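Q: Could you write out the predicted structure for this multi-component system? I'm mainly interested in how the pieces pack against one another.
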Amino acid sequence: MPSDRSMNFWVGAFMIAGLASLAVLAFKVSGLTTYFGGNSYVLTADFDNIGSLRVRAPVTIAGVKVGEVANIQLNRDSFQAKVTLRIKQIRNDLPEDTTASILTEGLLGSNYISLSPGYQETYLANGDQITETHPALILENLVGQLLYNTKSKAEKADNKKT
Amino acid sequence: MVDQIVRIGRQGSKFCSGVGQAGIVLFHTTVRKPRLRKLFPLLIEQLYHVGVMSLVIIVVASLFIGMVVGLQGYNTLNKFGATAQLGQLLALSITRELGPVVTALLFAGRAGSALTAEIGLMKATEQLSSMGMMGVDPLWRVIAPRLWAGIITMPILALIFAALAVLGGYLVGVEWLGIDPGSFWSNMQSAVDYKTDVLSGIYKSFAFGIAVTWIAIYQGFACVPTSAGISQATTRTVVFASLATLGLDFILTTMMIGGW
């Protein structure tokens, strides 16, 4: 049986190890508070279709993560999806003619938002809206269009023959 | 025929009175005037025996389980060319299920059985009743610190398990099999949510801690005070605690997924 002092030490070390594991799980594994705090601002963008975009999906510029999706709502007036983006504050803000598009990571991956900055000298401020957006490409719609096109082509070819 | 029915009835009433007695033990150990200054040194001692001494098996088991999940996951995901999603698979399966459940099973085997055997032997050698004769309440002196130690220890062990299992998966996936570490962590972070995954795992381990320690303590307290009785009680602790863990896990998971 160990002495009182070493027992206290080990119990204390045990508690600290537990807290350290909680910190690892919170920050490293679940990515809590990645973009919280003062130096971030919020932009909104309306999309025709967001596909399977989720809250906390990454927002990238040129493939580099600069923020995340904070909120997704339906815009009751235009029936578009209103997406709120939380962007890390960089030295220069984004130009006003920035476009936002929803892309897919790989063929079957999750959706994310890619921003491509424009060239204007005026900049987007906190709470502004990104007006130029490209909706997500829905794989089913693409396949449907492809089938439709090939079918009509085949019909045309048949008509020519007869 | 009548004998059969009589036996079923006897078993049933025995089971009910057992559950009732276990409830009484739990009630009398937890609901009472707290004497923290006296309880604290006893609690530290039990935290050492229940918690720190279980650490070795938890550390070794978590590293190996993380590495095995990493290896299996890599081989399966490789078929779809989606090995970058390994971090997600690993972290979700460990924080939600494997962490709390495997820790509780190991805890039942390592600490639960020891608690039962210790209390059972105290009962067999009449230490408990002599304490009562000296005016020291054995429920307070012996049972309460062990119960609290078990309840405090389980979530901490589950946290350590989860963190080290992720590390084990990282070692296999990134260091050995060569997945890109950036996509490993970023996929993990975008998939794992603190509230729904990490916190629900902690709630689970907390519930398992209460169940396992309660069963272990009651089995020790109610055992037949002979050597055969102690061995039976120890076996029963491990069996009941493991089954209770798995059953509770199902109920808690339905509650968490169902959202109530």
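A: Regarding packing and overall arrangement: The mean pLDDT of chain A is 82.
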